[in-house]
Amino acid sequence: MKSFEVNFDGLVGPTHNYGGLSFGNVASQSNSQQASNPKEAALQGLEKMKALMDMGFVQGVLAPQERPDVAALRSLGFSGTDAQVIERAAKDAMPLLVASCSASSMWVANAATVSPSADTADGRVHFTAANLNCKFHRSIEHPTTSRVLGAMFADQQHFAHHAALPAVAQFGDEGAANHTRFCRDYGEAGVEFFVYGRSAFDSRYPAPQKYPARQTLEASQAVARLHGLSEEGVVFAQQNPSVIDQGVFHNDVIAVGNGELLFHHQDAFLNTESMLDELRRKLAARGAKFESISVPRDQVTVDDAVRSYLFNSQLLSRADGSMLLIVPEECRANPRVWSYLQGLTSAGGPIREVKVFDLKQSMQNGGGPACLRLRVALNETELAAVNPGVIMSAPLYDTLTGWVNKHYRDALRESDLADPQLLLECRTALDELTQILKLGSVYPFQIN
Ligand code: SUG
């Protein structure tokens, strides 16, 4: 049976703005308070989706969330009509209003961790929504994420959904941004690679000193258990705490993997050699030949990686077996990174081509090509069971660009978030979107 890796990209929501909300994420902090352009952000994302579809990859769309999240503000004590809730939050607690307006659900690599059916005990594709509890603005995503994923992957014969882990820092879970799956073929059993930043219950593990480690070992282990993964099918590895302190807030800022290949920075992990040995051994037992490309720090520094998002790239397998790397424009702008990439593609290794995309609107909040997509490996039968409304096609691309052009603003500043009209605009747009994507009722304003 044929199998695919389907990329579901987050559609940027109408309130995309630069709130400076993510301590430890250099781009988010340094672009705080700049005016954003939600329309351009959404169109840049759609262009990437269309380009991948045109290259022959199966591409899907993941819907944005209702923002401002009035229910979150109500849970913090703001009351009255929806307009009054927003008005009072703007007056008394602007940071809370900004957080409740974040369009951060666009970075769907953080929506959930996904295990393909070939890896799981019950032979279904498993999803665990990420609790994202390191940041308030992200911790409010998972209830709607679960409803949207449920509407996309509804068939219980093929898909199993788990609620987010307990909402405490000890089980901090950031989803697929810290998870990679290696395999010979997407439809065969593979090895799932979970990368954590610290242990919550065992003080022998080192931890970063400056910035938070968002993912814990215990959260990764819980997800592996929930998904029914076997001992032979998992490898847990610790991120190097010093790179977290340099702005690597998710592992996908310093490493990316696909098929039998791990592409990573020399300083990405702790105990790199033994971890690579374990991956090699466990993949060999599954008939796969693991390979890694380590980018040396004297060619590309951790700072270069953080600023260019070299590793926040999409590593895609083409029909001829070679691989393609999708990188953001910022890689071309960095001479060391660009020269490294020229050498990489001409060296005769697995990565043969690099394609560059302009994703500046998202990048300025620390979200590159890899952050914007959730990978779901599916066999033909499972793909046929996915809600067809969310699979990208030329007509859907046209409809969605028309929808963005109709509903989105082209400038958004902090003061605009206090405008109750913005909430109405968003609800009108999202109501239409659920019809376009055939999702049914998934948003709080549709179900309460
Ligand atoms: O969680 N930025 C996101 C970026 C997530 C990137 N995802 C991956 N690496 N997979 C975050 O830090 C910034 C929002 C703001 O500042 O307005 C933000 O949430």
From TrEMBL:
Q: Name one GO molecular function term.
A: N-succinylarginine dihydrolase activity
- The residues that hold substrate are 19-28, 110, 137-138, 214, 252, 365
Which EC class heads this enzyme's classification?
A: hydrolase
Pfam families this protein is in? AstB
Instruction: List, in alphabetical order, the GO biological process terms annotated in this UniProt record.
Output: L-arginine catabolic process to L-glutamate; L-arginine catabolic process to succinate
State the oligomer form and interacting partners.
Homodimer.
Q: What is this protein called?
A: N-succinylarginine dihydrolase
Q: Which organism is it from?
A: Pseudomonas helleri
